[in-house]
Give the backbone structure.
Amino acid sequence: MKTIFTKTFSFFLISIFLYSCMGEREARDPLLGREASLYGIGQFANQLLSADRFSRLEIEVLYMEGYRPTNQMINGMQEFLETLTHKPEGIQIRDREIPSQGQETYTIDDVRDLEREHRTLFNEGNTVTIFVIVLDGNFSKDDEETFAIGAAYQNTSMVLFGPRIHMNSGGFRRPSRALLETTVSLHELGHLLGLVNNGTDMVHDHEDEEQEKHCDNQECLMFWQVETSGLFGFLGNTIPQLDENCLKDLRANGGR
Ligand SMILES: [Zn+2]
Ligand SMILES: [Zn+2]
């Protein structure tokens, strides 16, 4: 009885809260605040690429205990975005540890819940924000053979699966952890920038016919296997670059 009462009561409170948010919504800029972080992948490509609306970019990187990203990954993201976007007032990355959830696997809904709980940076004034979370578990849809290393899941949100990265790096014929996590994080940033044909229009047709939203060039950072188990078949000692087609698309959508 007590539980039911508590539940009803908190539901009531939540309803009041939602109602008051909705009341304010009309007056708000749809590009600012928490609500602006809930659009689909690629929907903020132009805002991230150009300086028209946002001249500054801040990235919040959260990681669970034991999965702090390498400095190479942080610097790699910074450099990648500095090269591709117009942010005259700068790009800043902040990282912070969050408590371990101890889950072996996570669904995308779990990741969304964690973002709701822990994300503190939202678009404000002339600053656009990106959220990156490194989990202590793997993706729920993985199987032994094929698995995800990372994913972009909203307009300014992406996730990396920490154990996958650790398991598959640093050993005989394995890429270093820095190389692997940097490669995958840049691929996911590419999706946030609207690649391929998903928020940023193509100048020349180069979307993979079988793997939507990916580049048809096997050498390109946006080739589909870059975020999956397939990556190990071809990742050498360097991070794959964006090819000319992908670069052209970004430039045409306000990028550098
Ligand atoms: Zn991808
Ligand atoms: Zn490409």
